[in-house]
Amino acid sequence: MALQKLIFRVIISPRPFVNISKKHGCAFSVLHSDLNMQVEHDRTNSCFFIRLVVEGKLDKAVLRYKFTGKNGIDLLSTDVPESFRGKGVAALLSKEVWLGLITSKRSFRDSSRNFSLFSSLWWFVRAPVAQINHVGRGCATSRRLPQGIIIGVKKGGTRALLEFLRLHPDIRALGSEPHFFDRHYSRGLNWYRSLMPKALEGQVVLEKTPRYYVTVESPNRIHTMSREVKLIVVVRDPVTRAISDYTQILSKSPSVPTFETLAFRNGTEEKFEVDTLWSPISIGLYALHLERWLAYFPIEQIHFFHGERLVSNPAGELGRVQDFLGLQKIITDKHFYFNMTKGFPCLKKPEGSSKPHCLGKTKGRPHVDIHPQVIRRLKLFYQPHNLRFYHMTGQDFGWLRNPEFSPPPTGTAVMYISHICSVKSSSNCFCLIRSFFSMFRRLYLNSRMVLVYLFSAVTAEPMQVAKEPHARLEGRGNGQREKKMPVWNFLMRNFSSPDSQMYWTSRLSFMLLLLKRMQYVCLVVTGPVQKGLTTFLVPSHQKLVVTADRAHANATSTVFRLRHCTANLHNLVAFSGQAEHQWWMGTSDPVRFHVGYYSI
Ligand SMILES: Nc1ncnc2c1ncn2[C@@H]1O[C@H](COP(=O)(O)OS(=O)(=O)O)[C@@H](OP(=O)(O)O)[C@H]1O
Hints:
It contains 20 helices and 25 strands. It is an alpha/beta fold and 600 residues long.
């Protein structure tokens, strides 16, 4: 009679008297009446568990729970060893939760004794739990072979991608690189599986080993493991990638020969014989490696991830990869912030921590200086390979265009801050400025407005003329001004248009951006910004894009640390800390500048 009352009460009751919810929803298998297992309750660790012997070793099936409020309990997870799954172990554990709960209610406590006699009736008792949004997923966690692998490329940004993906509740990723398909294949799949993190049914298990992409045996071996596995490749401009690779080699063995010596056969770049056997070079032959993968996997099964965009627009790239993995888009821009000091996007709250987190020092470190001529040669060398890669993937990664010339979106206003005239002589300086701006002109062709802001020892001369702190010059100046301000006149000739306004000041002082029609403002910093001298007031409807060369990344943070600026920080939509370009004018000082990729 008591049992009937209980069943009646549970089935028709609109909701259980104790609120039960599940963090990772699951459907329990029906409780087997012949299960004779001892469920123990560990109150300190809030879990119920059953001791089991799996392959001669002691293991446990564990159900973790958490009290929420006065009457609530969250069933957090149920972890059952694989060989015991489908036998009702999870149901047995969940039953104990019920029993543990109902001991506080006399009528239920009495009735509960009947469960030992009619244990399969537990299925009915579970009904209210099952209603709570968790049907269709197994609670039990297990170690599974990965369904997704980040196969490359080295120095492409694979660590950042993995760390970012880990934010997703439906992703379980192995932290270290297992190197199974390239180095440890003989250890067998069981060994490989044992390395994987435990995952719930429905969660995607991931690992990353960038070396797979260039290992000849990997495609076949991975295909043998699974035809369905999803492959992710993070690619980055092969020249930058090679320099990054070399920077890492150098950091480990400081006595290695120079980049140039290793990159060119016979050690001479004059001959232009690139050494394709040197791994920093050969890894960048993306098309060549891809051919091997395409012999086993259709192209749709491989997602090509833009390494550069991972820096400029992490949320956008993460969105695409979540789609590819068939996951709900949970990782969005609210998970990232741009760390000015690091010069890279970092996580506001990484997995398992509430503190912001950037990747370690070896990720995003300054590269060794490589002569621009060498870079040009290498770019030329990679050009046909890149083109082929574009054709194979059907994507343009933007490495063919000289990145210096990739224009920001139309309607972007550009303010350029520079001290480009740190070179020795005035004539050199002028030559430098002229070339720089002719390039800049092409770059910002679509920009409706260019704001130029110069300061330097050499340009101080024409600046003397413009005594006014924020002189606004439009069109050609008067004779004297023209004579004394060749640089300025050059700029005016080349840049002035009905839409252009130029602001000039000899000091970094107050600057008000009157860019009412502009939606975006791009601030390019390639020179030191003196602390305490500059205030930028950007109207709140505008978005600010800041870009700088690495050397002056701190300068930009200085800008934003300045008084009055903080109020405008919400405008900041992107900061490009990547895409470093050297620009060589034949003077002894190469000018480094930075033109970013814009995530707007
Ligand atoms: N958010 C963020 N933080 C730091 N670094 C970032 C980030 N996103 C991409 N990157 C780029 O990742 C580059 C390192 O690539 P990998 O992680 O694939 O390197 S490795 O192959 O695992 O050694 C690393 O290369 P270097 O800049 O040459 O150090 C970075 O440019």
